[in-house]
Amino acid sequence: MTESRADQIRALLKSIETGDPEPIKVVNQAKYIQHNPQTQEGSEGLEALFKRLSLTNPHVTIVRAFEDGDFVFGHTEYDFSTRRVGFEVFRFEGKHVVEHWDNIQARQGPNASGRSMVDGPTTAEDLVHTEANRAVVSSFVDTIFINRRYDAMPSFFQDNALIQHDAHLKDGVSALKNSLMSDRAPKQYSQCQRVLAQGNFVLAVCEGTQGGQHSAFYELFRIQDEKIAEHWNTVERIPPKDEWKNNNGKF
Question: Most CB within 10 Å of its CB: which of 117, 127, 139, 211?
């Protein structure tokens, strides 16, 4: 039985922990485009890199993994010397991975509602409504995050309910709205680069600033009955271009 692309990515990421070279064969390293600005492209083969990392006794947990056409997007937790949470996006051409993006931050929390950055449902459901759910998140990001039309927020939620996994927020729409309107290290979303979806899970890849620093915002939503029900995220500062180790850009 052929492994799904999501399962292949699970095995690939887990090989960081094990050092097993077999799962790395899914990557076409001759064409592989790396969008992590802090990773030098082509300096070290993935087999050697993952083998070296495995010797540091890392722990890799793939919490969720979803497929959208040629893309696989995963929600992950890493424990190398510190615990970090990230989103990983891989693009396939045929049978092989040829491109990779990520967004990683230190694990924090639990938040004021007792939720971690990664807990909650992990399996995509409502697959027949993938495109409708993608449209809900695209509209939310454009209306609320980018154009800041906060008067429209209630229309995206059921009874102002929101299960929140942001380490700095508690449950409920009011907490999210207040954070977006805050003058303390405010988030400013400038554009949405990509919206990936499978069933009731939708990932929005956004660009903007936080506290005046160029940042990437990865926002994962779970949709229920055409409304946003749950939210996870990571925020990562994008280093200045003169600090990049490759020229591919964060997005």
Answer: 117
Tokens of 59: 């722990």
- In sequence order, which residues have a C-beta less than 8 Å from that of residue 222 and are 6 or more positions away? 120, 121, 163, 200, 201, 228, 229, 230, 231
Per-residue pLDDT reduced to its tens digit, 53-66: 788 888 999 999 99
Instruction: Specify the residue for token string 């449950």.
Output: 171
Tell me if residue 81 falls in helix, strand or coil.
coil
With 0-12 / 13-18 / 19 or more C-beta atoms within 10 angstroms meaning exposed / middle / buried, residue 183 is exposed
For residue 155, give the 3-state DSSP assignment.
helix
- Cα gap 41→175, rounded to integer Å: 40
| E strand or H helix at 139 | helix 130-140
- The pTM for the full model equals 0.95
